[in-house]
Amino acid sequence: MPVQIRKAAAADLDAVARIYSHIHTEEEQGRAVIGWQRGIYPERETAAKALERDDLFVEELDGIVVGTAIINQLQVDAYAGAPWKYEAPDDQVMVLHTLVIDPQASDHGLGRTFVAFYEQYAKEHDCPYLRMDTNIRNTRARAFYQKLGYKEIAVVPCLFNGLKGVKLVLLEKKLG
Fold first, then answer.
1. Of 136, 6, 133, which Cα lies nearest the Cα of 75?
2. For residues 135 and 83, what is the distance between their CA atoms, to the nearest angstrom?
3. Are 31 and 85 within 8 A, CB to CB?
4. Number of helices and strands (H, E) in the chain?
5. What is the pLDDT of residues 68-105, one digit of tens each?
């Protein structure tokens, strides 16, 4: 099963929107707890803006888009003033946003592959400091990132991408 991760193209927007819709359905039906909300975040517009910035990536399995994430150096407002273990200049920090694997393609190690890609991408862009966040309610993602060596450094209550009352878990890792 050949897996490929690449920058997204305009032709990928429908597939990314479909993945977002699938994950919203999982949450609405009680099969996942992520803290996202249909009609607010993430939506097709989320992907379109990332595509415009050229920081939207897709993961393909056998030529079918099954995962997506945004990778850039844009740290969300909630990161300001956080007690980061590594005080790093902004130009040395790479951030992973909105990583989602289509629930219909789970259990293939696709999330792990995407995070490995993110780490290699950061290395290639001379960014040894990795940051990301997740909703405190998303215990599955929190456990997953911890297994990959990411440390939770703070929980920040905030308005996040239009979602009210979010408790955002901030995570970081330094590439060795």
1. 133
2. 18
3. no
4. 4, 7
5. 999 999 999 999 999 999 999 999 999 999 999 999 99
Edge-to-edge strand ranges of the sheet holding 56-61: 3-7, 56-61, 64-72, 93-101, 129-135, 163-174, 151-160
Q: Select from 162, 175, 165, 166 the least CA-distant residue to 131.
A: 175
User: Is the pLDDT at 33 greater than 80, yes or no?
Assistant: yes
| Rounded (10°) CA dihedral 156, 158, 163, 165 | 80
- Of 167, 15, 39, nearest to 105 by C-alpha is 15
Phi, psi for residue 112 in degrees, rounded to 5: -60, -40
Torsion of Cα atoms, 123 then 125 then 129 then 132, to 10°: -100
- Region 21-48: mean pLDDT is 97
3-state helix vs strand vs coil in the chain, percent to 5? 35, 35, 30
Closest CA to 171 of 74, 155, 48: 155
Length of the chain: 176
